[in-house]
């Protein structure tokens, strides 16, 4: 069940393996160092060389640290190998065959793939750049998935309108899942909304391939998530969880530095995009810009063409049919971003036509 988003990512990596210099702005890698405290904690745990399985809901110390962070009960916390795993688990538990899931668009391609895999029916709600990607209300459904800050736009849903939409949906029996993978990288405070929330250590703490995330959920749902872990991943490696504890103990300092980096990257990317005629909503968080240009009519073809220039971006068509947009992960130093966006401008149809005439 591969779509262009993942196919293009493989093509970019293959070109890189063959020696081509690629600026990969298509996948949400942070390109920031793993926090030293996480590395130290992992090494110390590995040095113990203990065998055996851990608890499927997560190490008690990590769950307690998360509960303190989120202001919830210990029993409401379930740890998993990344928030994507936990999202798949939640959709499997709360939706499935014959069940409907409300899905504000644009959204991360994995959402749609998870719904297809679980044979859930998507109720898509199309938002627009003109409305700063606000979606309004949710239709009647068994579940809903809302990403805040939003991947791919890095915009934040208005607190009052989001709170009202979620409260109304929950009153009607909809299980609303709030994906907060980018919460710690937001440039402004975000209100906690909803009974079911997901968070990830990947983007906030730059440990993407370590695979660590967690869910906050009512006890009954949390127990089902624990059972899902038991029959799938069993448990997250203890050294990864110890690294997570260290990250939370040093959260304030780590996230302050990371936000500073993302603000600088966003400023550089936005300035360059404006200079080249691209349109977008200014990011209110790391780590993306969702941009369009009047000359882009097929984002998939445009993204494939751009590979020849050594730049990879994600086509907006895979984020809910936004074929005139591309998602740019601003995961490079300002100078590299400016160079890459210049190449994006060079790949526009009018530029290619003028070169052919010459």
Structural account:
The protein has 358 residues and is of the alpha/beta class. The chain has 13 helices and 13 strands. It folds into 2 domains: 4-33 and 253-350, Aspartate Aminotransferase, domain 1 (Alpha-Beta Complex); 36-250, Type I PLP-dependent aspartate aminotransferase-like (Major domain) (Aspartate Aminotransferase, domain 2). Helix 1 (4-17) runs parallel beside helix 11 (299-307) and helix 3 runs parallel beside helix 9 (238-249).
What is the architecture of the largest domain at the second tier of CATH?
A: 3-Layer(aba) Sandwich
Report strand order across the widest sheet. Answer: 2-8-7-6-5-3-4
Largest sheet: 7 strands, mixed
Overall outline = globular
Question: How would you summarize what this structure contains?
Answer:
With 358 residues, this protein is α/β, with parallel strands linked by helices. It is built from 13 helices and 13 strands. The protein is globular.
Give structural attributes.
358 residues, alpha/beta, Aspartate Aminotransferase, domain 1, 15% strand
Secondary structure blueprint with pairings:
Blueprint lengths: L3 H14 L5 E2 L11 H12 L12 H11 L6 E4 L2 H12 L5 E6 L3 H9 L3 E6 L16 E5 L11 H13 L3 E5 L16 E5 L1 H4 L7 E4 L2 H13 L6 H12 L1 H25 L3 E2 L7 E5 L6 H9 L3 E2 L1 E2 L9 E5 L4 H13 L2 H9 L1
Parallel strand pairs: 1-11, 3-4, 3-5, 5-6, 6-7
Antiparallel strand pairs: 2-8, 7-8, 9-10, 10-13, 12-13
Helix pairs in contact: 1-11, 2-9, 3-9, 4-8, 10-12
């Amino acid at each position: 069940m591969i779509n262009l988003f993942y196919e293009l990512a493989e093509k970019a990596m293959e070109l890189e393996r063959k020696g081509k210099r690629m600026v990969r702005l298509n996948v949400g890698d942070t390109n920031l160092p793993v926090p030293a405290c996480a590395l130290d904690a992992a090494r110390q745990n590995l040095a113990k060389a203990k065998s055996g399985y851990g608890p499927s809901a997560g190490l008690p110390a990590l769950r307690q640290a998360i509960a303190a962070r989120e202001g919830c009960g210990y029993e409401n916390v379930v740890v998993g190998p990344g928030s994507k795993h936990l999202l798949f688990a939640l959709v499997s538990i709360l939706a499935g065959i014959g069940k409907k899931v409300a899905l504000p668009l644009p959204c991360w391609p994995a959402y749609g793939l998870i719904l297809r895999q679980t044979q859930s029916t998507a109720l898509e709600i199309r938002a627009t750049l003109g409305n700063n990607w606000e979606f309004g209300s949710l239709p009647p459904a068994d579940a809903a998935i809302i990403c805040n800050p939003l991947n791919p736009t890095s915009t934040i849903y208005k607190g009052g309108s989001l709170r009202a939409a979620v409260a109304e949906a929950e009153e009607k029996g909809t299980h609303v899942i709030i994906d907060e993978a980018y919460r710690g990288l937001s440039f402004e405070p975000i209100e906690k909304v909803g009974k079911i929330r997901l968070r990830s250590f990947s983007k906030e703490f730059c440990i993407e391939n370590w695979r660590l995330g967690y869910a906050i959920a009512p006890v009954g749902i949390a127990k089902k998530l624990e059972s899902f872990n038991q029959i799938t991943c069993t448990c997250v490696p203890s050294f990864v969880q110890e690294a997570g504890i260290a990250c939370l103990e040093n959260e304030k300092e780590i996230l302050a530095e990371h936000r500073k980096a993302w603000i600088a990257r966003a400023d550089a990317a936005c300035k360059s995009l404006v200079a080249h005629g691209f349109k977008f909503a200014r990011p209110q968080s790391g780590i993306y810009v969702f941009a369009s240009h009047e000359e882009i009519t097929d984002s998939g073809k445009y993204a494939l063409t751009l590979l020849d220039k050594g730049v990879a971006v994600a086509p907006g068509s895979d984020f809910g049919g936004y074929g005139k947009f591309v998602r740019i992960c601003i995961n490079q130093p300002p100078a590299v971003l400016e160079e890459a966006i210049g190449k994006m401008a060079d790949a526009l149809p009018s530029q290619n036509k003028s070169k052919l005439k010459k």
